[in-house]
Predict the structure.
Amino acid sequence: MSELRYTANTQLEQLHARYTGTGHADTTKYEWMTHQHRDTLASIAGHPPLLAYLAIADGECQARSKFEVIEKMLQPCGKPPGKTD
Amino acid sequence: MHLLNLTLSPPTSITTAVVGSFSGAKGQEILAVRGGTKLEILKLNTGTGLLDTICTTEAFGTVRNVAGFRLAGMTKDYILLSSDAGRLSIIEFVVTPTPHFESLYQEVYGKSGSRRIVPGQFLAVDPKGRSCMYGAIEKAKLVYVLNRNAEGKLFPSSPLEAHKNHTLVVDMIGVDQGYDNPMYAALEMDYTEADEDSSGDAKDRTQKFLTFYELDLGLNHVVRKWSEPTDRRANKLVQVPGGQNAQSERFEGPSGVLICCEDHIIWRHMDAEPHRIPIPRRRNPLAQRGESSRGNIIVSAVMHKIRGDFFFLLQNEDGDLFKVTIEHEGEDVRALRIKYFDTVPVAQSLCVLKSGYLFVASEFGDQQLYQFQSLGDDGDEQEWSSSDYPQNGDSDAPLPYAFFNPRPIQNLALVDTLPSLDPITDAKVVNLLGHNSDTPQIYATCGRGPRSTFRTLKHGLDVSPVVASPLPGVPNAVWTVKLTEDDEFDSYIVLSFPNGTLVLSIGQTIEEVNDTGFLSSGPTLAVQQLGNSGLLQVHPYGLRHIRAADRVDEWSVPPGCSIVSATTNKRQVVIALSTAELVYFELDPEGSLSEYQDKKELPGNATCLSIAEVPEGRRRTPYLAVGCDNQTVHIISLEPENTLETLSLQALTAPPSSICLAEIFDTSIDKNRATLFLNIGLTNGVLLRTVVDPVDGTLSDTRLRFAGAKPPRLVRATVHGAPAVLAFSTRTWIVYTHQDLLQTQPLIYDQLEFAWSFSASMCPEGLIGISGNTLRIFTIPKLGEKLKQDTTPLSYTPRKFVSHPYAPIFYIVEADHRTYGPKTIERILGEKEASGSRVDRTILDLPPTEFGRPRAGPGHWASCLRILDPVANDTISTFEMDEDEAALCATIAYFPQGNGEPFLVVGTAKQMVVTPKSSQGGFLRVYAIKNQGRELELLHKTKTDDVPLCLAGFQGFLLAGIGKSLRLYEMGKKALLRKCENTGFPTAVATINVIGARIIVGDMQESTFYCVYRSIPTRQLLIFADDSQPRWLTCVTNVDYDTVACADKFGNVFVNRVEQRVSETVDEDPTGAGILHDKGFLMGAANKTDLIAHYNVGSIITSLTKVPLAEGGRDVLVYTTISGAVGALIPFVSMDDVDFMSTLEMHMRAQNISPIGRDHLAYRGYYAPIKSVIDGDLCEAFNTLPYPKQQGIASDLDKSVGDVLKKLEQMRTSSAF
């Protein structure tokens, strides 16, 4: 992941490898957003009442909601922005 | 302010359930996780065919997954849990002495909380019980080897990691390889490339992999053995039996996994050709040309082995069950077959019991138990086989659609239903029964889709009446009596009237008899079957001992006095004379009653007497209880060495009206034998319960409860084979033991004067009672239920409901997403028929409660407004909304045009889509209310630019929360007229509460805003205070003028208060100029509310009501949750209580009673630290601690164990139930 590049050879490297989602000075808005969304979606799938709430609002069964939530974690915030150097 | 949280009715939704023999005894149990927080063991009662709850325990944390496993050579399944505690937990279900869970092992592996990379989301166990795998949604997988140490105790190894970065896991299971190395399968997706590629192609190219992980038991490490791409929309894995049978060397199955994808099921294994079959689907008569229908997924699955063979039951989103079978030769699969089985409600988990039952843990609403009638082997249901397709169906293109016709169940038969409240979408707590009820009822809208219901919950036990027959007069007592000791059923009913006694004989019919030997010319005080075959009648002037039809022994009172009270059991009789004397009789060896030589003088006139039943194997009960009119109760010995000697005495606050000694089992007092309880009814309506010491007759541990406005009469009775005490006041109370704990509950029945046990062939376990001048025979079908439910079906998911301001009428708004309304269905069918296509309506004619409604795309809604009479439990009428218009909120508002008559305003949304949020605006519909609320007339519809989520009547106007704005509307002739608005709300206005001139607005994400309305100089809605924290509100209620109680989406409940100084300044500012010119603080309003209490309930709260629950009790906050629980937050009155309860809570936390090892303080402070709320449920778990621990805690509190228990009970009963 891109954040690993910036932190190579620092003591944070291990931390970043171990705890997915840890930010650093050069985290882009997109990266941060993506992590936030993935955390949130994982939390919805992991808390039965939240999943039930979502399923009721959306008129789906809970298994479908859970599946769609996990699928959405692949790219929760749309396409990544292009490289700007 | 300090609050005590108490659960009144535990959650009912089942998030996951597994079957296993957890007790180690014969038969299987079902372990169900209720609401994610409660573990419950259900067992099928083979006698009744119903599911009984054996044991429940609160986890104090979120249980995410459960699995049973069995170590080699054991006969008992242990329970493996994954939870938000970040631990591997292994617990055991122990049956003796009382059923409970014992924690065997807690191993910390990660942070607490349900997080993305902390394992716990998935739990897979090796079928042979040798190891298990914990998986997270992303990256982390841990494998534990389940060993036994030298003593044979379970001893998991340290975890082995099988992590892979940037990998999402969709599902994970254990693969059955027999006794080969344990293997696990996971569905994985790698997002590395998708994150890097800005064109978005990589995301579309991302494949889903089926990956096998093997645990090498010899080398003790995990390898990623095999990984192959599979269907991109795979969502679920199912274990397929495998491995060789140790004796016959026959393969149990082909091993591998079933991959459930959208529309397809694939069998796969390493190095084997896959087999693929379609998931059959229903024909959709409403499908329109050009409309692409979404695929169907499998939501739950169960594999069952039967006589060396196996089959799968898979359930799709519509609830259709499919039977899947695999034809195999050794390890080679020949064909994968699927056929339609039956349709049952959509389940979270399916459990097949070996005795031939299917338990459907339905995701919303009641849970069902079905019995298999057949396995669907015969019959002409079409079957699809992978061998019918080229390459066994294995290709990239979808297989041709397979269609089936759903039909009523054939292979299953419904045997039991567990009533379930979840999800409660809205509730009101109010007394609509007027003088017929002392306490309010809970009215809740429950369920989802076509299975939605409206339920009335009343506190008390349900009674099922058998017979009600009129009597010639009003009797004051009734007894039933057997003829001999060994009779199975009662033979006579004896009724005592003020001027006579009536004897009825029980046979084919119940009829009057005159030759029984009973004296019928006067009233009767007591009737008893005495000795082997004698009958006893106590009347005011003597005793009649009827030893045979022609032999009657009589004993008469001394002249000038009479008997005022009597008590009897099989061998003993005690009577109190009007001269304040007691006479004691006992059965002698010849079977005749002999009088004790002395009479006992009492200090005052006896008003009531009681002796217990003769204990098993004894000649007599040792104690007599006497209530005297000088406000005392005496315990008097009946033992031969000190007969009629007073042993102890208790002073009362009022004269006793009735008294009853009974031996009832209660483990919180004595774990081994029944406790002798003395129940005393006082003339002021209070019911006392005291424990009588079995050794010296001293009285201790007095509990007190207000029974009703009438002096209670007490009777000992047998209910469900166990002793119980009935108390008759304005309500009838029953004291009985349930799950080894003493319970006191009211009966929901007409007011009874008296009742007695009744046993006859037609009704072996009933009660016979008197209500006015009718004789009632009734039974109590189910003990332990705290709330009685009455159910009315609804059409769609109920969203909100409002009550008529004074008539007992509710208006319910219901809306279902992805569904067509009846008008739309007619339109589509009409169009299709007009265009010449043939339309098959059979699916539309199936009952939607069982088969659901045809699925529509997003943005399609079916919705209605319902007028419901909650007292009669009847729908008066319904109004369907227009096409794709969803009714979301409603309120009662008064407008000047109404001349004091209320109007109903309903807010609707047009073509709303939940995610991503979009809509075609909304409408405000105004209805005039007519005929005492029973009729509505639509006056007009006003279009709004965004979705109205909440409405409130306000000073002759209507307040509406429309998107981000709060608007004030005035009533017009053709529409509502917008007068002013405030658009300053951050996300969306979700709630509006009006208290006096103040408006409290709840934002969907940003907590509450305190607003005022000012009309001078111009109309304005001004915000003067807000919250400093973001809160995703679900409901808000006013506690007082300055204080609100709110609940949010994460299960928190909290209380916010605005400073009184601010509150007063604002109210004294007529123009609002002061508010306008106040400088904002922290990018918001000038004033901030203070958080004064905070607590995490563990489930989303959907309604909050401030109401007194107990008769004469204080206001409490009653909440309902999406998991179907009802709870209350009770304010403390004294700081002493706060100190006591918080110290007790601290000690209870130290006991670590959570079976999943979740830290209690962390759980209750899940998102924000707990503040000023004490967890009453944790404190009440004190009941279940072993006695030495109880004693340790009690001594730290400077109290006795009894005092602590008494305090706990009093905290609950004084304000709730």
